[in-house]
Amino acid sequence: MIACPCGSGRFEISCCGPYHGGKPAPTAEALMRSRYSAFVRGNLDYIERTCAGDAARAFDRQDLAASLPVTEWLGLSIEATERGGAEDHDGTVRFTVRFRQGGRLFEQTETSLFAKIDGEWRYMRGEFSAQAASGKAPGRNDPCPCGSGKKFKKCHGA
């Protein structure tokens, strides 16, 4: 059995795996964890399928596909959740991800908005701050910590 990349301490087959296979995530946090696991596994179909609104419009499969081979995902920590339960219609999840890209360690903290659409949770948008693990913000020519594969100045540094 393989541990789930989301850090839940459960096996992937009984954690994020069923959501990747088509079962709807029951909460916003479960969707967040499963999306992180999808990034780790390179499952772009799932990442795209679970986007809506601004996130769906901003989804760029080509950029994400280019960034996956040069990104090593190192961990996810859930910091806080607000609403996002089985009976809610929206919710937010604040989390931190750690990853290595271009030989540098990064940490990104994001507050993401989720909404339940037709009974299924979807990622709508997120606001984040990122910095190199050294505590410095990424430089203009560093890879963007969002994982897009673009330089910071052409992505979130614009």
Automatic annotation (TrEMBL):
Classification of source organism: Bacteria, Pseudomonadati, Pseudomonadota, Alphaproteobacteria, Hyphomicrobiales
Pfam family of the protein (one): SEC-C
SUPFAM superfamilies referenced in this protein's UniProt entry, alphabetically: NTF2-like, Sec-C motif
Domain spans labelled YchJ-like middle NTF2-like: 27-126
The species this protein was found in: Rhizobium alvei
PANTHER family: ADENYLATE CYCLASE-ASSOCIATED CAP C-TERMINAL DOMAIN-CONTAINING PROTEIN, UPF0225 PROTEIN SCO1677
Entry protein name: YchJ family protein
Superkingdom of the source species: Bacteria
